[in-house]
Design brief:
The complex is a heterodimer.
Chain A: H1 6-16, H2 23-26, H3 32-45, H4 54-63, H5 81-93, H6 102-111, E1 134-137, E2 142-146, H7 152-162, H8 171-179, H9 198-210, H10 219-227, H11 247-258, H12 267-276, H13 295-307, H14 324-332
Antiparallel strand pairs in A: 1-2
Helix pairs in contact in A: 3-5, 3-13, 5-7, 7-9, 9-11, 11-13
Chain B: H1 2-24, E1 30-34, H2 36-46, E2 59-62, E3 65-69, H3 73-94, H4 104-109, H5 111-131, H6 136-149, H7 152-166, H8 173-186, H9 193-210, H10 215-224, H11 230-239, H12 241-246, H13 251-271, H14 282-300, H15 305-322, H16 325-342, H17 350-370, H18 373-382, H19 385-395, H20 401-407
Parallel strand pairs in B: 1-3
Antiparallel strand pairs in B: 2-3
Helix pairs in contact in B: 1-3, 3-5, 5-6, 7-8, 9-10, 10-13, 11-13, 13-15, 14-15, 15-17, 16-17, 16-18, 17-18, 17-19, 17-20
Classes of the chains: A mainly alpha, B mainly alpha.
The structure holds zinc ion.
Amino acid sequence: MGEFAADRHVKYILSVEKRKDDFESVVMEHLRLNGAYWGLTTLDLLGKLDAVDADEVISWIMQCQHESGGFGGNIGHDPHILYTLSAVQVLALFDKLNVLDVNKVASYISSLQNEDGSFSGDMWGEVDTRYLISCFSPVKNKLLKNLSYDRFSYIAICCISILQRLDSINVERAVNYIVSCKNVDGGFGCTPGGESHAGQIFCCVGALAITGSLHHVDKDLLGWWLCERQVKSGGLNGRPEKLPDVCYSWWVLSSLTMIDRVDWIDGQKLVKFILECQDTENGGISDRPDDAVDIYHTYFGVAGLSLLEFPGVKAIDPAYALPVDVVNRIFFGR
Amino acid sequence: MADRVHLEEESCGLLLELEHILDSDPLIDEVGFIHPTQLAALIGVVDCDSSGDLDTLKFFNRDHKLGISTQILFPLYKQAKIIFFDEIERYKKQTGISGIWGDETSLQRCKSTLDELEIGVMKHSKVLLLLSADLATAWNSRRAIVLKKDTLSMYMDELRLSELILSYSAKSDQAWSHRRWVIKRIVGKLPNLQEVIGKESKLVERIAERSKMNYRAWNHRCWLVSYMTGEQVVYELKNSRVWAGLHVADSSCFHYRRRLMMRMLEDFCAKNASVSVGSSSEIYDIWKEELEWNKLLIKRYIGREALWLYRRFLSLHWLRDFMTQLDSVIFLDDELHLLHSCSIIPDSDFDDFQAQAMYSTTYILWLARQLSRSHAIVLRQKLQVGDMKDLLNSVCPQRSFFCDMLEE
Ligand SMILES: [Zn+2]
């Protein structure tokens, strides 16, 4: 097991931003705001947020905003609730939420809530599919990995809570909808009857935690399902029979933290697994040992280490997915 | 500077060439990004004079298969993107309002340019999506135009495009989501909805064959269940059994069965509000058969987590919704018997049998925790908590706390 290569990871993150001249990076342009959130949160967790020019980032983010109040993943791209959360989270990191017209963003989000309490992701209105990004390798002509799992109810609730406008949505209905996605195995799917998945579970538990509704969760039963995600190597998978993947260090671990069952997995073995996924030479963390690194898994690896209280990494809030000091600044004014 | 202009002209030519191919062969059903040397080999079959410069090879199109040289992806994408975003900007201006498109009065204005713009947006978004399947803005632009025209043939074209993209990008959430959007739009327009749903279900099976444990594909199939008739649900259950038996590690395909089984149970309960499920009903037989089939697979494929998790579900509902107290005693005896036969670990094949022992132990403990009080008492009397602790300690000591939950 190698050491934790924090400085290399910082260098790697700063270098990703500059890569713009190949196919693989341009096809990811539409989710640049997500990438910014992953990269910048990692920098903050490592205490290196000052390595980037905040003004430059903020002025770019504000150019991604639309009339409706929502943000696109990059300049010129259609708005979506997912990128709106990323924008708000990044502004929160820089303590710059004050540049936002909060009412406008809040009304964009509340306009996406449906009768049954669920949220659509944008005006095209598919209710509550999780948002997954697939990293496509044109050379090998096959899919390499899924990049992100998110859920619109969580995104909406997290975003609106950071803006301190929870009263602008119907929280009760939103909670009821989430509870209707619960399965007999204690987990949650993306819609009622959907298969339990660690990414979905994080979103549901996170939303319930933010709204103070965790009493709807059978903690022992859910904890049971979640701790069964740990495989022999120490890594966690997101569903039964899948290979372990660093990103689930976050999805599973944050959920276990919120329901107070984190000691149900072997933290030592998980730390070891994450450290084995580092590129100790050039920085960055991959999904599994010896795979290619990317910014997404770098973020979730570091966030996982943070939940495991690894030395040298700032504490992260398991529900808001932001450093604890940032969350405290938002709600308690430091 | 002159170089740049030249480059741009060239990639614009690439875009036109590709769009021409797509126009002239609307039945393309496969796309691949191919290295120029492979492309040369492919073309070599039809074209003897292929020893020339590899850089001149760009596309391959035969038998409705389209190959694109990996060499040209970057310039092609860049050009398509510039033109698409430029056009979509103009289109939004033309239609007056960005955000809510299709304002009548402004539509009347420049009808011809508008038509041209729409054709352009459809063409360029198609190329972009072939190269970058999750570009939501491109899908959105297609939805806006298709919605405005609102013709069945255009909706069907969208299903075809998304199928083409899924043929090589099977995890594209946007492509799956686009299908659901289209199906919701055409539900009322179709005389043969059941046929479309049935075909859609088959499509998922084909894609799941190539793309293992694909959550989005199976999620799509689960979504279809609410559009199925009762007969279709039974048909799907029976028809997808062979596939499931051959893919016992694919937990999602068992979740699909869970969804179908639950739909049957819900339908039954809705029809027979006050009656509990009797042993003479069709669903009783199906559930029993499913349990037996699952046991068969468990014994054939040692140590498969997905099979054991499926059994948790089947047994829990079986006890809860189908069994009298007396029946349940017999059933639980059988399950304990299964546990004992599965917790013997021979020296050979150590790993799989170790896993089998662990899954069978946690299966019983899970049931004991989840059962209603009266059933749980029966089971807990049969299980010696001390014995279970020993067993759990030997097969997965890190989860010995599962036993503590039973003692409460
Ligand atoms: Zn991952």
